[in-house]
């Protein structure tokens, strides 16, 4: 018997009164009956007292408002709490996209298909689905996550569905409001914008993942300048965002070991602090200017006027995108020469200087007509922007990569094939089973007879190489006896994991040159830019041979043999270049005639410029 029942068993208060205990039989029976009823009802479950409905609603509402207010106050005033909330939200977005994509790949790659065409279509659709999920997560998170997407977009051995899906991240970055920009400027410079600049445009002329650029006029000199200002909240959330990126990639590796991207997080952790330091960018700018100081080139590096960690003021460059055919046509700039000159610039950085720009994309390149004082050999200058990240390439790696490239352009033979695999292992830790993937990534196609014979013409039925490799949709270029079709994606990821980061960046430069060669609709063969790279590789090897001779590591006879091989090889490629340039001029002349026949001089000019 519980306490509640005991209290009820005591009966009514009248039992405790002092009245005489004289009742009729009827009253006695009636009274006892009531007791029994009450005792029986006391054994049933009793409901606890309830608050009135109106008061309950008010109580829950007040509790909700109290917790909401406390959370808002903590979010606004307590940095660790705010970081925890944002970290959880951002991490959940990225983790959901990454794990969902990995599961999708697992299911797609293990499924049985009725035909090879069905399998290829299913894999392609899986690429698109997974890339789209990741894209949405990166856009929602912003900040360094945009940088992560840009890095993925530039990975030349990924399928084109991934790179094309991520490509919009190069231009889709949200601008920081002017009020926040002005507050950062005042904090870092100690003076408001109005005291240093006139006509400071509050609307940025360019927005990137790490910073945005405003046009203004320097008060002291009256010179038009570009003011680069870092996004204010980037530093605040850098550590927490990087931890989230690396944790998410670690989870993917744990659950799906074949889909390993942890190296991507390591790269960002190492390199982003350099890109976020604009004083470091100013030093890089001075370095590259010195490297090209005595070279006759169309490369132009804008002057840095002032730089600290988060603010950089530099010379303003008026020009067009390097792949803008209408702009080139307006200024009578030969698009073929632009493509070739870009390849020369980047090849000199890699193979001669051993120190190269590590964030190349069309947005970092502007072209303008050359002035009378320009040292450009052509009627245009190519301005290279954003010098936040450069890589050096040590002599041994540079020479081995050059030898590997030269073996690729040589005619295939047992000795040449052995050299290719030898240098692939020295350059990228690439074993024999992964060699076909690596070779295709370097060249953009595979040919048993070398690169030069692979695409000497521009037939309409032959798709030009616009990227390093489209491994899934054009996997016929791979040696199917060496790499099974269902293992291609896994092999690509394995190659990326093994390659030194500097080699990946060199491949990224090669891919940029090939991409721009296609975007400019050049009239020469796509092999033409390969020949330029080959000449610079020959220079790198020859320079190494000369160094060995000076150091006493190479005999006089061997030195003469190397000199002869360099002279013959260099002359041979130069001769092939002349023939290809002559063929390209014939193609352009033919286009001019067709345009003239259809639309007169205006049509001829547009046709020769690649405008349709």
Topology:
Layout (H helix, E strand, L loop, with lengths): L2 H7 L15 H18 L10 H25 L1 H32 L5 H26 L2 H10 L6 H7 L11 H12 L3 H4 E2 L7 E2 L3 E8 L5 E7 L3 H22 L6 H14 L2 H14 L7 E2 L3 E4 L3 E5 L4 E2 L3 H6 L4 H19 L1 E3 L7 E5 L10 E5 L5 E3 L2 H15 L4 H15 L6 H9 L44 H11 L2 H19 L8 H23 L5 H53 L4
Parallel strand pairs: 5-11
Antiparallel strand pairs: 1-3, 2-3, 3-4, 4-7, 6-7, 8-10, 9-12, 10-11
What does this structure look like?
The protein has 612 residues and is an alpha+beta fold. It has 21 helices and twelve strands. Strands 1, 2, 3, 4, 6 and 7 form a six-stranded antiparallel β-sheet that branches. Strands 5-11-10-8 form a four-stranded mixed β-sheet, covered by helices on one side. Strand 3 (211-218) and strand 4 (224-230) form a beta hairpin. It is globular, with a radius of gyration of 36 Å. The protein starts with a helix and ends with a helix.
Q: Spans with pLDDT under 50 lasting ≥5 residues?
A: 1-31, 446-486
Shape: globular
The biggest beta sheet is recorded as:
6 strands, antiparallel
Helix/strand/pairing category: alpha+beta
For the termini, the CA-CA separation is 97 Å
The number of distinct helices, counting runs of at least 4 residues, comes to: 21
State mean pLDDT (0 to 100 scale): 81
Any idea what the radius of gyration is?
36 Å
- Helical fraction equals 55-70%
Q: How many individual β-strands?
A: 12
Strand content: 5-15%
């Amino acid at each position: 018997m519980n306490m509640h029942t005991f209290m009820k068993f005591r009966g009514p208060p009248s039992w405790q009164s002092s009245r005489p205990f004289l009742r009729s039989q009827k009253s006695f029976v009636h009274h006892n009956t009531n007791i029994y009823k009450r005792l029986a009802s006391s054994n049933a479950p009793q409901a606890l007292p309830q608050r009135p409905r109106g008061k309950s609603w008010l109580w829950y509402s007040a509790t909700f408002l109290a917790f909401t207010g406390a959370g808002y106050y903590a979010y606004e005033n307590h940095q660790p709490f705010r970081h925890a909330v944002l970290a959880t939200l951002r991490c959940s977005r990225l983790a959901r996209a990454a794990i969902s994509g990995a599961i999708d790949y697992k299911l797609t790659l293990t499924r049985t298909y009725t035909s090879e065409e069905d399998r290829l279509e299913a894999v392609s659709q899986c690429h698109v689905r997974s890339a789209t999920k990741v894209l949405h997560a990166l856009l929602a998170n912003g900040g360094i996550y945009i940088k992560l997407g840009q890095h993925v977009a530039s990975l030349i051995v990924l399928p084109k569905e991934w790179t094309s899906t991520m490509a919009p991240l190069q231009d889709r970055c949200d601008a920081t409001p002017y009020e926040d920009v002005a507050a950062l400027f005042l904090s870092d410079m100690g003076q408001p914008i109005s005291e240093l600049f006139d006509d400071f445009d509050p609307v940025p002329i360019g927005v990137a993942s790490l910073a945005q650029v405003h046009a203004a006029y320097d008060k002291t000199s009256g010179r038009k300048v570009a003011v680069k200002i870092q996004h204010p909240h980037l530093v605040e959330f850098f550590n927490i965002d990087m931890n989230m990126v690396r944790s998410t990639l670690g989870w993917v590796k744990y659950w799906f070991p074949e889909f390993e991207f942890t190296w991507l997080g390591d790269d960002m952790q190492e390199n982003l602090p350099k890109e976020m330091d604009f004083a470091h960018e100013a030093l890089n700018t001075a370095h590259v200017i010195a490297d090209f100081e005595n070279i006759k080139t169309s490369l132009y590096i804008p002057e840095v006027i002032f730089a600290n960690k988060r603010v950089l003021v530099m010379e303003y460059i008026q020009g067009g995108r390097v792949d803008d055919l209408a702009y080139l046509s307006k200024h009578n700039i030969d698009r073929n020469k632009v493509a070739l000159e870009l390849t020369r610039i980047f090849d000199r950085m890699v193979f001669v200087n051993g120190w190269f720009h590590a964030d190349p994309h069309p947005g970092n390149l502007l072209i303008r007509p050359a002035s009378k004082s320009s040292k450009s050999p052509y009627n245009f200058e190519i301005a290279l922007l954003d010098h936040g990240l450069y890589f050096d390439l040590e002599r041994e790696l540079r020479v081995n990569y050059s030898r590997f490239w030269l073996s690729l352009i040589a005619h295939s033979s047992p000795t040449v094939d052995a050299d290719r695999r030898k240098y692939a292992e020295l350059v990228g830790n690439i074993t024999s089973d992964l060699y076909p993937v690596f070779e295709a990534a370097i060249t953009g196609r595979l040919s048993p007879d070398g690169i030069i014979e692979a695409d000497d013409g521009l037939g309409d039925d032959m798709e030009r190489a616009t990227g390093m490799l489209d491994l899934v949709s054009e996997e016929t270029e791979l040696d199917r006896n060496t790499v099974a079709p269902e293992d291609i994606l896994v092999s690509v990821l394995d190659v990326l994991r093994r390659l030194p980061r500097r080699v990946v960046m060199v491949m990224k430069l090669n891919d940029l040159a090939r991409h721009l060669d296609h975007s400019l609709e050049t009239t020469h063969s796509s092999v033409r830019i390969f020949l330029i790279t080959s000449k610079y590789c020959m220079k790198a090897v020859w320079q190494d041979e000369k160094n060995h001779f000076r150091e006493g590591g190479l005999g006089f006879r061997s030195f003469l043999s190397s000199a002869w091989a360099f002279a013959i090889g260099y002359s041979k490629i130069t001769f092939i270049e002349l023939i290809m340039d002559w063929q390209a001029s014939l193609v352009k002349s033919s286009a001019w005639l067709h345009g003239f026949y259809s639309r007169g001089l205006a049509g001829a000019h547009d046709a020769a410029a690649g405008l349709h």
